[in-house]
Every structure is written in structure tokens, then in C-alpha cells.
Write a structure and sequence with these properties.
Number of strands: 6
Helix content: 25-40%
Distance between the termini: 41 Å
Shape: globular
Low-confidence stretches: none
Order of helices and strands: EEEHHEEEHH
Number of domains: 1
Length: 119
């Protein structure tokens, strides 16, 4: 059973972010770029440890629509065509709670790959 359940999910298209409130009172505002580069899909995560694929050029990505998957997840469709990631409630909570750490890791991996993010 899910410990963290969203009570509100709001897509802010102009800000390119997804705001999520959870039943424990926490609220996260997650950039679409962040959600896209940490998609739980096999396309991004690979099929095992060490097979992750660094996503480049996702600074301007937005979410076009969101579909609920059962009572445990959402499946966003991004405007770059990516729509195979199913984000369980615990995954969304983890992405919110660890945003600073994960975002810095992403920036470090971009730098190591010699990629400059667009401002």
C-alpha cells in the first residue's frame, strides 16, 4: 500500500512544472525537465543498473497531458513525444523529497558529458 498519496496534482504549463500535494502535507513543484530526465521508463533508466541514458536538450520540454494509471500512478505525455514513463506515487514523492540531490547529480552528469544547458 502507498504511504504517500497525492491529494492534488496541478500542471502549470506556462511555468513548465507539475505541482503535487501529498497526504502528509508536503507539496512539491517539480520542473517538467526534471521529471523528463528522471522518467522511470526503460528508455531513460535502461533495463538494469548502469544502463541509464543521459537525456540531453530537455530544458524546454513540457507536459501536454497527464493520465492516471489505476490508483497508484500517473503517466505524463511530454511534448517531445516521450510518454512511456509511469510515475508511481512513491516515485513522485522521492523525486520531490530528493530534488536538490538529484538535480545536482543531473547537472554534474551533463557537465561530465560536455553538455551545456540552455539558459
Amino acid at each position: 500500500m502507498n504511504k504517500h498519496i497525492p491529494t492534488e496534482i496541478t500542471l502549470h504549463k506556462q511555468q513548465r512544472s507539475l505541482e503535487i500535494a501529498f497526504n502528509d502535507g508536503t507539496r512539491f513543484d517539480l520542473p517538467c525537465e526534471y521529471l523528463r530526465v528522471y522518467s522511470p521508463s526503460a528508455e531513460v533508466q535502461g533495463h538494469g543498473p548502469g544502463q541509464e541514458v543521459l537525456q540531453l536538450g530537455k530544458e524546454e520540454v513540457n507536459i501536454e497531458k497527464i493520465e492516471q494509471v489505476g490508483s497508484y500512478a500517473i503517466q505524463p505525455s511530454f511534448d517531445d513525444g516521450h510518454d512511456s514513463g509511469i510515475y508511481a506515487w512513491e516515485t513522485l514523492y522521492d523525486l520531490g523529497a530528493n530534488y536538490d540531490k538529484y538535480w545536482q547529480d543531473y547537472l554534474d552528469r551533463l557537465e561530465a558529458a560536455g553538455h551545456q544547458r540552455k539558459a
